[in-house]
Every structure is written in structure tokens, then in C-alpha cells.
Amino acid sequence: MAPTQIDSRLLHDLKKLLGRGDVLHKPDDLLLYEYDGSVDVARPDCVVFPRTAEDVVGIVRLANRYQIPLVGRGAGTGLSGGAIARQGGIITSFARMNRILEIDAENQRARVQPGVVNSDLSAAVEHLGLHFAPDPSSQKACTIGGNVSENSGGPHTLAYGVTTNHVLALEAVLPSGELVHLGGAALDSPGYDLPGLFVGSEGTLALVTEITVKLTHLPEMTKTLLAIYESVDDATETVVEITARGITPAACEMMDGWTIRAVEDYVHAGFPLDSAAILLIEVDGLREAAEYEAAEVAEVCRLHRAREVRVAQDARERDLLWKGRKNAFGAVGRLSPTYYTQDGVIPRTKLPATLRRISEVGQKYGFAIGNIFHAGDGNLHPIILFDARDPQQFRNAVAASDEIIQFCIEVGGSITGEHGVGMEKDRLMPLLFSEADLDLMRRVRDVFNPAGLLNPAKIFPTKKSCGEIHVRPVPATASGPAPA
Amino acid sequence: MNAASTTIVSRLTEIAGPSNVIADPAQLRAYEICGKTPGAAVRPGSSEDVAEIVKFAAAERLGIVACGARTKLDMGAPPRQYDLALDMTRLDHVAAYDPGDLTLGVEPGIPLSRLEGVLAEHGQFLPLDAPFMKRATVGGTIASGVDSPLRQFYGTARDYVLGMEFVTGDGAPAKSGGRVVKNVAGYDLHKLMIGALGTLGVITKINFRTFPLPAGARTLVVTLESARPALDLRHFVARSPLRPLTAEILSPRAAELLADDLGALSTTRWALVASFAGTPNVLERCENEMRRMAEQLGAAGFASLDEADRVLGASSRTREFVPAALKSSPAATIAKLGVVPARMQQILDAAAKAADAAELPWAALARGVGVTYFALLPSEQNPEALSRVVRATNDIVAECAALGGNATIPWCPVEWKSVLQVWGIGRGDFEQMRKLKKVFDPPGILAPGRFVGGI
After folding, report:
1. Given CB atoms, is A193 within the 8 Å cutoff of chain B?
2. ipTM, 2 dp
3. Which among A152, B3, B354, B370 is placed 20 to 30 Å from B177, CA to CA?
4. What is the pTM for the complete model shown?
């Protein structure tokens, strides 16, 4: 849909509400807001920067009066187009609502505005021995409001859970302009679990203006191990046996050989270039528990023919191992004009079969596909490298990606583990849900968002979504977006 | 309620078979909820049966309440209309269990105790170890929203339910979530079903994340002179590197009620019951640190026991507080009080003061996460006892609200439900809940009136 010229009266009203400096509408200024971390693009009509919940109420009322779409946005690091104004309209950026309102160490709670950067909250409570557990790879940029919208995960969600497990209460502005409080700092608020519904609703039910989160104690000890394998199957069997021994690692990440080489060339984390797979495993807790589990994990790795098991000896070594993992997507971005990352989930015992299928798909279409994934929970991030300037390659990349997702579903998995459906996977939703399931979800959306002005054309399949996909050319030097 | 018409019985028989429809008034008494008996009960054998029955009930405008082992039907408010009991106990199969993936899909009618055995064979368990465990079904436990002592470490059902299938009030099957441990596709409608008392849908399948059984578990009981040092010990533990499986504070009367479950650990004083999991040297370290902290607080006693049943053994020590309290008084009235942990002292003090002022015996169990079960235990059920209970609970509910918490009264004599603040004080988000109810149950036939605000 081509964006229409924005109504000058609306612009005037927005500027009157927020002040001149808090409304962007010149085409050059809007460029940055056409994107998120995914491959989709759409231009908003304007971008506004509220500072208070009252500002947000005012913006929502104006959007209603002018019947114009409204999309919330944090740092724009999302990977499914959740923060893109697919049908134009007003982007509400929470960049200026970025205050930590309250830290309550005794009760392990914090109250924050949605624009607070994920890692800033953890940094602010580190001296208290606490952290905010969800840790998407983009955590140095992404906002907690964005995490709430997408129900973000991260490498450590294996033991600590995803965002929804850490959100107690929300203050939000409904599309009607009503300010509501859902849940509470105390547990077990009577009634339906509304925070549970709103977290992960991808900005389609409300604009969240305040979040009460749980803070988690930092473990007494963390042990980080790197196991190097000659075969992917050996690595995946290791993952299964670690659980069979009653150990739930804090994190359990895998990279395949192709990705290892791309990463090593860029990050110099010391990953051996001739290996087929590595596992990055972290165990934590009491000193005695972490030491015991680290020894058990190392033994399991060796039993499954790990060529080498390294244990980080200090924080610096640990950071280096994680740097290799967290910058993997940046490393891949250097190799190709464009890459496309999937977010499929499979039961993790199906890892070997799934990796074989991904490799076949790559061969069929002639793409290099790298694999990085949260092996512990079966959340895959295959990376398809292609040149988006070539329309045929673009179509093939989408087709290859769909084949991979199709396989994930066949083995009992999901189309998205942590990135969200957004505008990227809406057309895939019918593979998971029946028309009746989707209809019920639509009716739930309509309870809060009846006119569909809030984040329209997301999550639910629309007839024309296929043809609407656009691709952002990623310059060869830029670091790419970082999935969790 | 009058006996069901022959048309209703014959249609139910058509769907579920003659042996699965109950119309005999004597037998129907087993399905009574808050003094109301349904006109018929039906035991569906499949999710398709459930959908057919609900569709029929929607057309006939029959009020339905789904049930399992019927251990918690007296929670919540009485149904406004109760024509049909939907007995889910035939839907009792394990639909899928993949130990390697730590995932499990079950039908709602399976008893928790049977499920425990299935999981134990693979060295796994479900932290859904909630009251009435010996008889309760998985579905009833989820729908009633009761919690387990294990929530201290594992969280509540919302943290490990991965997805559900259910039938909405118009008889349409629906689902949300999935059966993998990480999934953000679509709205998490299943979270709404947890603790909804069946007002949004009839659950036909639940997918869980399972957990590996730890190497061992040990329960420690520290006895103390009063609530204050017991709560201080809870706060000490929270600030320490220790991560207990359970951390429950018992009043002397609560400890007495749980004497059988505590066994060798039983006490007649205030106590903190905490359990830990891990290898022998982890347990040793936990015990040593606990002992040190207990001494600092002048503990009167310290007992320790290794749990043969590991996690579930630890949980069983305090799990059955509510059933024990209900059994101990003809008019037991149990409030559930949620506050942030730092306010637990104040709410316990306020509740004890209100109970003492009303001359009511009481027992309290406070979970370390900030959820307290406060039981008022009158010796008789009569108007005089009621007026004292009303006075005490009104004070407690108001005080809890003043502390920024929430209070409900999940259990009390049926006859008192209309007088007591069963669902506590109305909340700002009620209007959103009412709108959701309409979406899930357009004809308004699913457990009508049972939930918050008459939903």
C-alpha cells in the first residue's frame, strides 16, 4: 500500500500534543523507521516520541480521530517486522520513555518504562547481585517494551525462561485510548492472566507504557564450556544426554562448521576452523552444583566424541566464547549482500534429521546455509545467504526458508521460537493453526483493537502478504541484525 | 435443578453412549457444586464428544461445568446455572510423551498421581504437585489454578504449560501454543485458561514442559519462636546464593495440621520448611548455610531429612495444607493473600490480629514467593461464627489491598459464599476480562457465575 500524504491537520495536532521536536515527518527523517532487523520495509507517515503515558493516550486518540494506523516501536531490532508500519501511519517510538522508575531489590522487582534498553536494566541492578534474565543477542540495543511485545528469548532462556516468565504487571494504553493496569507486583492477581495474553501479542493489543518485571539473582558460579566436534550428530546426541542426566544447562548453543569459520574469521574467539560443530554450554548455580555439572557435561561431551572440551578459566575467556556466539550474525553479514534468518523450532531430538534437511534444501537452491541455534530448546536459526538484488535469488531464498519451516512443523515444531510472527510469517500461520484457531485469536484481538488501527496486518494471514515482502540490501560491511 | 428432560438425556446418550450419561438424582449428587446439583452428567470419551456436547448445550442454553476428580469444585462462586456436569475422567490418556524433548501432552482427566508414575519411569516429573494431589486430575488442577510448594523454584503452571486444546462455549475446538518448549506463534490463549475455573473453555489437552529429577533432595525444618524470625530467615535465604525448591512458613497450628506429612520433621512451633535439590555435597552446603542462618536468628530447633521421593517428597511435606485445614473445622474459611515478599510480615500480622479479635482459631501457611494461605477455623458453622468470619475476612481483605496485594477467599462453607468476598475487591482490569469471556463463551454457558465479578 502506497503511503498517502499525511493529513496536515493530524501533524499539527501531534505537534501541539508533543511539541515540534517530538514529531518526525520529513521523508529523510522517516528512512530509519522503515526497517527493523528483518528483511521487510515499509514507510510510516510520521514518527512520534511520547514522554509519558498521557502522551501515548493523546496519540492513540488522535490516531482514532484521523483513523490512521498506529505502530509501537522500541529499538527496531525485531526480526519479524513487528515494529514496521506495514500500512503506513504513525510510529510511536518509545525512545524517550526510557527511565527505570523503581528498583526494589528486596522484592526482586523493577518498574521500567518500555524504552529502557534490556542490558541497561541488568547493568543498573548488577551491584545488587541481580539481573533481568531474558537476554536476546540484541540486548545492548533492544528495549524491554520490545521484549514484552515479542516475548523475546535469548540463549539463557533454557533455564531462566522467556520474557513472559519475568513480567508481573503492565500499564498499557488500549486502542480505545483507555489506560489500563494488568496484573500486579504481588503474585496471582485474581482473574484471567491478562499479562500472559498481552506479553507476546506483538503490539497488536495495546501500547505498553510501563512494565513491572522480576529480577533474578546472579548465580554464585557460572561455568562456560566449549566442546568441539567432528560431526553434528555427535553434538546433538550430547545435548540429549545432558538432559538424560538430569542437568538443565543455563544455556546450550550450537554452531555448525560453516558458521564457525565465518565467525572465527571475524571475532577470533579461537574456534577451530576444521571442526563440524561446536557446543557452547553454560551451567550455573551454587559453586558445588556448577562444578559438578560442568564435570558431568564435559564427560558427556567426551563420551560423544568431542575432539576437545575447553572450559573458560575466567570472565575474559567466557566473554570471548560468548562474543563468538553473539556476533555470529554480524560475522555472516560480512559474507553476503543479504541474509535471511529463520526462527523455526523443533523437538530437539529431531535436530540431526532437521540439519540434514536444511543441508539438502541449501543444495537444492544453491545457497550456503549456516546454522546457529539454541540446541537446548530446539530453536533453530538457519541463515540463508543470498543476493537480494537478484529477484530469482530472492524468490528462492523465501522458498528455501519455507521448506525448512515446513519441515519444522512436520516434526512437531513451530514457525517461530522467539522472533515473532509479525509481517514475516503471517502467511505461515495456517500451517500451525486452523482457521477456527486463528478466528478465535482474531476475535481476541478485536476485543481490544476492534478497528484494527493498532499494528495492522500483523500475525494473521492477509491475502496479499506474499507479494508484499521487500528486502533491504545489507551492505557488505555492515553488521547484520542479531537474533537472540 | 430439575431432572434433565428426556430429550436432553437422549441426545447426550447419542453422543457419549448410554453408560456415560447419568440422570439418576442419587448419583448426580456426586456432582454437586456449592449445593447445586446438575440435571445430568455426561462422560465424553473424546474431544469430539466434548465439542458435540458443548454445541448441543449452547443450542439448548444449558449451563455446563467441567470436572475431573471433583476435589476443588467448591472453590469460587456457585454456578448461576448448572444443568450439566461434564465429567472429563474418561479423557485420561497420555497423548504424547517425549522424554528426550522434555515434553508431554495429556488429556485433562488423567490423575496427577498416575502421571507422576509415568514420568518417574524416565527420571522426570512435573512441578504441578498441588493440593488434593492424591485424587486430583491434571485438568482440574490447571483449571482451578491451585499452586504447589514447588513454585518457589519452578514457577506456576503458566511457566511450564506449552499449549492447550480446548472447546469454546460455542462448541468450537481451538488451540494455542504448541508442544515445543519455545514458541511465540500466536496469542498465548492457554495462559487465560489457567485458573479460569472453566469459564473460557473446556480443556481437552494440555502440553507441558517436563523436568529432570535432580540427584537428590533434602528437607530442612527450622523452628522459631514467632513469625518474624521465620520471615527473616526467608529473606536471608532469598539474599543468599541458595535456591530452595520450597520455602514455606508454617504457623504452629499449620504445623500441627501437617504433622502426618511432616513426619519426623513435625513441630509445634512456627517453622520454615525449606527443601533443596542436588548432589550430596550441594545438599550438605545448603544444610550448613541454613544452619548458620538459623543460629543467627536464634532458632529453637533444626531438623533435616533426605527425601526418598526427591522433589515430590519435598513438596508433599506442606502440599496438603488446604485439605488439612478444611478437614479440621466444620466451617473452615481459607483466604489466599498475595503480597510482595517484604510485606508478608505485615499481612500475617494483620490477619492474625483480625482472627484473634474475632476470637477465631487460625492457621497460616506462607509461601516464600509472597502467597499466604490463611485459614480461619471456627469450631462450628452457625450465624454467630459467620458474623465473626465476615468481620475478620473483611479486615484481612482490606488490609491486603492497602498493602498493594490481592486477596480472595477460595474456600469457605457453601452457605457463606454469598456473604463473603470470595473474589476479593474488584479490579480495574475486570472490564477487559468480561469482554474476553464474551469472545470465548458467546452463549454464556461455561461455568456461568463461578469466576471473578460474576463471570
Report:
1. yes
2. 0.97
3. B370
4. 0.96
